[in-house]
Specification:
With 365 residues, the protein is α/β, with parallel strands linked by helices. It contains 13 helices and eleven strands. Helix 6 packs parallel to helix 12 and helix 8 packs across helix 9. It is globular, with a radius of gyration of 23 Å. The chain starts with 5 loop residues before the first helix and ends in a 20-residue tail after the last helix.
Length: 365
């Protein structure tokens, strides 16, 4: 897997067409298993798409509407990130659950979106993908990236998209002195009000814990991915909880430094980046990969010529599928981490060491 493209080339044999013709089966309550959830509506999906600036194929609209004034869209408007209208929900997207829970630390409810494949069987452990949104993007918008639920249905993944306190919480990564939340509880570690960054991480990991306690999740196949701010969050939450993850896939989000690299060096990594990204420049991803190479990390770096910040992955199912193909191939049970001389020489516990050939008797004089 040290070779950039060998693993992904091997993974390509796993890709297949994904059917979107199944009907919605089961009630929201039966799928949620005690969580406070309901099915998404087409109207909610349409609203989450925001103000379109291009057609679904990326070509300019003939009569574009005025720019969005939603604060969540400020970065997209400023950077002129293309956005298209939300397509009609596929059958798998119709099964997206809109959920919420009460956070004791924050003293408020937080939303998250959840997808459980129709093939889920509590008697069989299922892989889990935790998908982190970018700045100004909601959990539902992240779940509605083209192909997410269709591919999760095809390959049998549970997918959850947490909020991380709000749409700009940066997934817990410290930023300056921090912002105390006056309505939050007191952090017993600091004897002060919880900071926004602390609540962002607490929220994300509480949702992960909730999914793991509700469903039969394979502990050897829990994966973390995210786009933009979510890419940075993938590095951060990956390094904060390295014991959980079987693989990481940061997209358009550089953020590996020497400290996080040491914590992540045993986890396989797929890094994806648009070469012409004006928001998160490719230098961030390239420098992260440079550190991976220095640490001997198992990684694949894919840089997409001519692609900008978001549209190529939000409306690029064929690109998002590479994340699923990567996760299809890596697990804790098959990953040894960077190969060392000691590992290479280590004998198998179940195979006896080779026996020396019997000595050839000398002929009598």
């Amino acid at each position: 897997m040290g070779a950039r493209f060998g693993l992904l080339a091997a993974a390509s044999v796993l890709a297949a067409g994904c059917s979107t013709t199944m009907a919605v089966t089961g009630s929201a309550g039966s799928i949620a298993r005690g969580q406070d959830c309901r099915f998404v509506t087409q109207a909610e999906a349409d609203k989450s798409g925001g103000v379109p600036t291009v057609n679904s194929d990326g070509t300019p609209l003939a009569n574009p509407p005025p720019p969005s004034t939603d604060p969540n869209d400020a970065i997209a408007v400023r950077a002129k990130i293309p956005r298209s209208a939300q397509p009609q929900l596929t059958a798998s997207q119709q099964r997206i659950l809109m959920c919420e829970y009460e956070s004791a630390e924050a003293n408020q409810k937080f939303p998250y979106s959840l997808f459980v494949p129709t093939t889920y069987d509590p008697a069989k452990p299922s892989p889990l993908i935790v998908d982190l949104h970018g700045s100004g993007v909601t959990p539902l918008q992240q779940m509605l990236f083209d192909g997410t639920t269709d591919l999760a249905e095809q390959y049998g993944y549970i997918v959850v998209t947490p909020m991380g306190y709000n749409t700009t919480g940066f997934w817990g990564a410290p930023r300056g002195a921090g912002t105390p939340i006056e309505t939050a509880d007191i952090n017993p570690k600091t004897s002060k009000k919880y900071l926004l960054s602390e609540l962002a991480e607490i929220d994300a990991m509480a949702v992960v814990a909730k999914i793991r306690s509700t469903y039969t999740v394979d502990p050897n196949r829990i994966y973390l991915t995210g786009h933009s701010m979510g890419g940075f969050g993938t590095y951060y939450l990956g390094s904060q909880h390295p014991e959980i993850w079987a693989g990481l896939a940061p997209i358009a989000g550089g953020g590996l430094n020497d400290a996080t690299g040491e914590k992540l060096k045993n986890i396989p990594m797929l890094v994806m980046q648009g070469a012409d990204d004006p928001v998160v420049r490719r230098a961030g991803s390239r420098n992260s990969v440079l550190r991976m190479q220095g640490l001997g990390m198992q990684h694949i770096y894919l840089e997409f010529p001519g692609k900008e910040h978001e549209f190529w992955i939000r409306r690029g199912r064929e690109n998002l599928e590479k994340v699923f193909m990567f996760f299809n191939l890596v697990s804790k049970t098959t990953n040894l981490g960077p190969m060392t001389a000691e590992l290479a020489a280590q004998p198998s516990a179940n195979v006896p060491p080779p026996q020396a050939p019997p000595a050839t008797p000398r002929p009598a004089n």
